[in-house]
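REVIEWER CHECKLIST
Item 1: Sequence provided? yes
Item 2: Single chain? yes
Item 3: Sequence as submitted:
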Amino acid sequence: MKKNILSSIFSFILSICLFAQTNEGTFTMVMKYATRSENNMSADYFLKNDKLLEQMNMQGTKITVIVDSKEKSLYTIMGEEKTAFRTSFPNDSMTQKKYSKPVYTETEEKKVIEGYHCHKIMVWSAEGTSEIWVTNEVDLDINMMAMAKSVSFTMPTGWGFPIQVNLIDNGEKVTITYKNIKKQKVDPKMFDLTRYEIIERPVINLDQH
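Item 4: Structure as written out by the authors:
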């Protein structure tokens, strides 16, 4: 069960962000499948400079993930355990071997999502086609799909905050929406790992995603 949960965590967390310095805020991610509603999920995120904390509940288990982009490490805490599993990000050569180079097109298509005026960016690669709806109305700097360069593409900087992503997962449409976005102070104690025993795990295996 834990192996499946950890695999799911890596798939989701690696699709979130690489964030700039002096960047603090919170938001919620909601993922919905077109037909397989049992796979729907949500997670809360807390940004503080070069760190990200994710909290979710999967199969009745509370999952906490702390990502340190400066250290290039990801820590996973299961439930109320006092153990944190540390995994290093894959290096550039591993990423390049796994994924093809994407092609981006910034379109003229626009619409309002979650109250934000957004425009659409199309992304094509050998792994599939995705559309990202971004806005310039959010004062948080998040580079979509850039976590440690370990996903299929990295969106160019300066294109705005991603409000919604539409993609295909195993032949089914998936919609990821970011809600409750707030630029605010985040307590640094949330990222404190001193009370946990750190256990090293292998580098994230991209072939599993």
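Item 5: Key structural point noted by reviewer: The first helix runs from residue 2 to 13.
Item 6: Recommendation: ____
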